[in-house]
Amino acid sequence: MEHTTLRSILILLAVAVLVVVALRRAKLPAIIAYLCTGFIVGPHGLGWIADTADTRDLAEFGVVFLLFTLGLEFSLPRLIVMRKAVFVLGGAQVVLTTLGAAAIAWLLGAKIPVALVLGGAFAMSSTAIVVKQLAEQTELNLQHGRLSIAVLLFQDLAVIPFLILIPALARGSGTTIADDLLWAFVKGTIAVIVILGVGRWLLRPLFHQIASARSAELFTLAVLLVTLAAAWSTAALGLSLALGAFLAGMMLAETEYRHQVEADIRPFRDILLGLFFVTVGMLLNPHIIARYWWLLIIAVIAIMLFKAGVITLLSRGLGADRGASLRTGIVLAQCGEFGFALLALGLSASVIHAPVAEFSLGVIVLSMIVSPLLIHANQSIATRIFPENEADDRDRLQHDIGKHQVHAENHVLIVGYGRVGQNVARFLEPEGFEFVALDLDPVRVKRAREAGDPVYFGDGTNAEILKAAGVERARAVVISYFQVPTALKILEHVKKIRPDIPVLVRTRDDVDLDKLMKAGATEVIPETMESSLMVASHLLHLLGMPMSKILRKVQEVRTHRYSLLRSVFRGQDALPMDTSHAFREQLYTVTLNAGARAINRTIGELNLRDKGVVVTALRREGVVGRQPPADTLLKEGDVLVLWGTPEDLELSEEKLLKGA
Fold first, then answer.
1. Rounded CA separation 100/119 (Å)
2. Contact present, 336 and 124 (Cβ < 8 Å)
3. Residue 571 vs residue 372, higher pLDDT
4. Which of 165, 412, 530, 589 could form a disulfide with 450 if both were Cys (CB 3.0 to 4.6 A apart)?
5. Between the CA of residue 547 and those of 543, 550, 560, what are the distances in Å?
């Protein structure tokens, strides 16, 4: 008996491991590695695995989980906050790029359905590459980073009409295509309303009961059931499986169980997405690429220049400065992973033919390979073309901290107010040491300022920002960013301004210890909980606290199982601490505006501890009180600082504002 399926899986796994390791060493995305794996083992490569109905079904399930992931990560609150940039800039970009690319394809002889699918595939950018690269370069919260996220948000939203469009194009012919499209959009609208309505009214109580059973297997089964049931329901209406999966992700994203769902589905998502990209790579035809390589290069250059130009002009029209507009265009010039999904759907629906899909896949893959290099160089390219751009960015970053006129003296400057930065601040406060913190996460800064912490939006790698934060008058500096290149830039500026100031640096490990010490770090401290204790103890020693008192403080934290160190504000892109979901508690602020049910009630009456939530502080009229007693009467305008898991915090906020 020949175990052909097992043999194919073993081949895929073996080649994928080797290729992923090799390309990751070259700093290329894992997506490219999976595509290369499919190319190597597929029918156009070594021919070890044939293009069969089974592999195509596998690819379709990969699309389902790709779209489920997009739906789960879709943020309605962020969409509302950034609505102008999302709908004006993102909407215009998708429409103009789709129509422009479709028009070119039509002029080159493609039929209208084929042209529309190709236009949609080329209009999308790679969320995975853009977000990862900008995060590594600490550019997510700069002007071009925020504009890029806005466009990517709309592209996620544009998934729905494209998923409705492709099956309709497959059925339409001649004069009936308009009727088929209209009917498809009517069914799609009904499906969206029904599925989201079901998610709104039924999913939360359902998952509450399932979570109460405290069974990880049952929870995972429920997630898979909801996802596949939603996919089946849209397929039954003649729409795509992927549309239902996307809507299922959106439904679950609106519940307090979103984080647990994301963690439980991650193994299925990663495996099936990897296999999906492998099956896409199997479609790459080296004969077409070798025969039309010059046309492929021209197409990549033309599409990336066209997208960059459209996005630059639209960003400029939205009010962004010239440099930021150009940087946004450069960042989003590539095609993305959703282009693969559209081409795969188009192939399965027989809207486009294999040679066209193979050539288009080559264009998308090549643009994604080039993209990390362009994103890395986006600032230098923009500065060469618009030299004044760098100054504009600096002025904008200084605005927040400059308008508050920081005049603190003998304070500690904390650069990076994430988990470690906040842990250090918690040690300084009770001992009477002042601190000023800088951070580039606007959500974290807003929440921390609501709680009364002196935190400002600013880029610590900029010397003028450091001066505005009072580094010339500070007693010490703590750098809590774990990215070594960022820490080195901050160290360089700090030592130029104040060569004598003690600087403590937090790192993930000790690989770059010598490099940081040579750059001027007084101490370099390792990662996570013990690193937080070490940073705080070194800092308190530098500030003159007796060592015996420091040791007692550290022992107290260890005795209470690091509960102090788990009290942090999460940012907008926060990830779980680890896959076991230990230490998921965080700080969260709730403002009691007019009409809140908690007004004129005591903290004890609310019974928040029964929901696993602790009130750690109360801010009233600018004065912060830590650990308020249970008989404290709450008033309008109070800001409560709560500590608990994301799910418990969400339920407690609803109780505080709306009642049980």
1. 7
2. yes
3. 372
4. 589
5. 11, 5, 20
Q: Are 77 and 142 in contact (CB under 8 A)?
A: no
pLDDT in tens, 491-527: 988 988 888 888 888 877 656 777 888 888 887 776 6
Q: Are residues 375 and 294 in the same domain?
A: yes
Cα–Cα distance, 308 to 322 (Å, whole number): 13
Task: Check which CATH number belongs to the domain holding 643 and give it.
Answer: 3.30.70.1450
Q: Which residues are 435's β-sheet partners? A: 412
Half-sphere exposure of 430 (CA within 13 A, CB side): 11
- pLDDT at position 531 is 62
Q: Can you give the pLDDT at residue 590?
A: 85
Q: How many domains does the chain have?
A: 4
Residue 307 maps to which CATH number? 1.20.1530.20
Q: Pick from 362, 385, 408: which residue ends a domain?
A: 385
Q: Half-sphere exposure (CA, 13 Å, Cβ side) for 390?
A: 13
The reply to whether 430 falls in a domain is yes
For residue 417, tell me if it sits in a domain. Answer: yes
Using a 10 angstrom Cβ sphere, with 0-12 exposed, 13-18 middle and 19 or more buried, the burial of residue 593 is exposed
Single pTM value for the model: 0.58
CA distance 87 to 232: 30
Are residues 291 and 331 both part of a single domain?
Answer: yes
Q: Which residues contact 107 (CB under 8 A, 6 or more apart)?
A: none
Q: Are residues 531 and 599 in the same domain?
A: no
Q: Which of 377, 370, 371, 296 is nearest to 332 (CA)?
A: 371
Residue 230 lies in a domain: no
- Shared domain check, 119 and 17: no
For helices 91-107 and 112-123, give the axis angle rounded to 10 degrees: 140
Report the distance separating Cα 229 and Cα 226, nearest Å.
Answer: 5
Two structure tokens written together for 524: 């370099």
**Residue 305: which pLDDT band, with cuts at 50, 70 and 90?**
very high
Q: Note down the domain range covering 157.
A: 59-182+270-385
CA nearest neighbour of 492 among 573, 415, 563, 550? 415
pLDDT tens profile 240-264: 677 777 778 877 776 667 667 766 7
Q: Is residue 101 part of a domain?
A: yes
